[in-house]
Structure formats: structure tokens, C-alpha cells
User: Which sequence fits this backbone?
């Protein structure tokens, strides 16, 4: 079994798709890892958890005011003070690569990064597009991703539509508040992801 590290990731964007619209913020938190022997290890948010956060300058003048308002980020502030997208994504790649390198040294086995989200579709689209467009690569490649919503639906014997958080047993959900701040939500989501990974469905 390959050792792998789970990077809980949350994005805030000002529209439905990258390119015409812009990534406003990204939060990444190492929520856990699996050793070569298959042991699952949590990296709790209340410890010295490796994290990354960036607010980005918009790449177009097109935006959906309702989508932009969700995260509570001021667009003018992002235009004037947001990080350049290339700089932000290079820093994200370096964070993921560096964290995996340190884990590799610690465990003595090569550790591969896994992008973990709930649900996966929206976040992986933005992370992959921005990383590839601005840096030429995503540290997760094209297929090293974990969708916690699908995992929950499968283990619970539910359909995808009925697998929202409100249908989850309380012991799977995080006690952290969902704030729509990308790093806060990545940490909250990370706890849920690790709970789902350990859950046997009963």
C-alpha cells in the first residue's frame, strides 16, 4: 500500500466555473495520512496542523455578486491586495510538496498527496484549473482525489442526493462551525473526512 497524505481543501469563488470567474480564496489543511502498512493517522485541527491559506486577485471583471458575497470577501480588497494567482498557486504546490516531503522523511516511505473534499466536484475543478493554468501542474495529478460525500453515501447505503451533512450521524460531523472562511472550512471538513474514512457504516 502506498503511503498517502490527505489535504482537506476548501475554495471560495465568485462564480460557478474557473476562467470566466475567479477563485477568491483557498484553504488547505493536512487532516491525516495513511502509512505504508495501512494505518490511518489523524492530524487534528487543534494541534500544530500544517495549513495553507491565500486570498487571490480576480482574473476577470465578471463575477456573480451572490457567489462573491458568500465568503464575505470584499472584491475591491481582492483586486488591490489579493495575491497574484501564479504566486498563490506556486505557494500552494510548495506547501503540499513540502508537507509530503516531511512526512516521507518521518515515515521512511514516499508519501503521495490526496486532495480530499466534501463534495469533491466544485473544489477539485477550481484547484486543478488554477494550479495547471498558472503553474503547469497540480500536485495531486489528475486522479488522486477523495470525495467524502461519495464515501459517506456508499457506506451509509444512501443515494448521493440524500447524502448531505444534515443526514449524517452526529459522530461523523465536525463540531467546528462552518464559517465560509476557506481555511476554517477546510479544518472543519478535514475532521469529517477522517471520521468518514474510519466509519464502517454502522
Assistant:
Amino acid at each position: 500500500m502506498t503511503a498517502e497524505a490527505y489535504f482537506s481543501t476548501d475554495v471560495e469563488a465568485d462564480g460557478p466555473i474557473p476562467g470566466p470567474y475567479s477563485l477568491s480564496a483557498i484553504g488547505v489543511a493536512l487532516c491525516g495520512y495513511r502509512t505504508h502498512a495501512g494505518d490511518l493517522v489523524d492530524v487534528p485541527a487543534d494541534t500544530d496542523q500544517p495549513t495553507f491559506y491565500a486570498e487571490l486577485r480576480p482574473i476577470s471583471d465578471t463575477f456573480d455578486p451572490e457567489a462573491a458575497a458568500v465568503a464575505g470577501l470584499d472584491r475591491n480588497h481582492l483586486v488591490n491586495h489579493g495575491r497574484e494567482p501564479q504566486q498563490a498557486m506556486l505557494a500552494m504546490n510548495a506547501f503540499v510538496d513540502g508537507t509530503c516531503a516531511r512526512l516521507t522523511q518521518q515515515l521512511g516511505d514516499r508519501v503521495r498527496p490526496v486532495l480530499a473534499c466534501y463534495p469533491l466536484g466544485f473544489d477539485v475543478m477550481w484547484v486543478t484549473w488554477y494550479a495547471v493554468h498558472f503553474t503547469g501542474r497540480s500536485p495531486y495529478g489528475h486522479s488522486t482525489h477523495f470525495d467524502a460525500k461519495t464515501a459517506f453515501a456508499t457506506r451509509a447505503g444512501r443515494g448521493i442526493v440524500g447524502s448531505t451533512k444534515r443526514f449524517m450521524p452526529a459522530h461523523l460531523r465536525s463540531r467546528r462551525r462552518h464559517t465560509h472562511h476557506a481555511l476554517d472550512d477546510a479544518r472543519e471538513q478535514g475532521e469529517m473526512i477522517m471520521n468518514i474514512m474510519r466509519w464502517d457504516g454502522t
About this structure: The CA atoms of residues 29 and 187 lie 6 Å apart. The helical segments are 65-70, 75-81, 85-107, 120-135, 148-156, 182-198.
